[in-house]
């Protein structure tokens, strides 16, 4: 599947939502890596939860979650090797690549507010309080 095919309309919709809330992602997110994992961001009360599909990845060795100058940065490498014997021949397919996703965080978020876990091929990063204070507040207009 080509990289272009992976960037379908729903992915752009999610990324647009992320840009609207967190600010623009860095250009590396779109063009820098050979592998772009599927990502979803959901609101859980005042928290934001970023879920990244990383099946078969050794998260202890190959994945990092960083807070870098106000950005949540998820980066690493995916290594996948498959072998199949068919008609006395061995077919090997290797899929791998580095990835990097970064999201601008609200100014009040500190490293203490970020936690990460990995379960059944999904990395979940919780940003506690990311949505705190994100409600729209109406300003009265003084009509003289």
Structure keywords:
144 residues, alpha+beta, Immunoglobulin-like, 4-stranded antiparallel sheet, 3-stranded antiparallel sheet, 7 strands, 19% helix, 44% strand, Small_HSP
Structural write-up:
- The chain is of the alpha+beta class and 144 residues long.
- The chain has a domain at 48-80 and 97-132: Immunoglobulin-like, CATH 2.60.40.
- It is built from four helices and seven strands; from the N terminus they run H-H-H-E-E-H-E-E-E-E-E.
- A hairpin with a 2-residue loop joins strand 4 (71-86) and strand 5 (89-104).
- Mean pLDDT is 78; it is low at 1-9 and 24-33.
- Pfam families: HSP20 (PF00011).
- Residues 29-144 form the SHSP domain.
- This is Heat-shock protein Hsp20.
CATH architecture of one domain: Sandwich
Order of helices and strands: HHHEEHEEEEE
Uncertain regions spanning at least 5 consecutive residues = 1-9, 24-33
Number of strands: 7
Mean pLDDT: 78
Number of helices: 4
Helix content: 10-25%
The coarse overall form would be elongated
Radius of gyration (Å): 19 Å
Termini gap: 62 Å
Widest sheet: strand ordering: 1-2-7-6
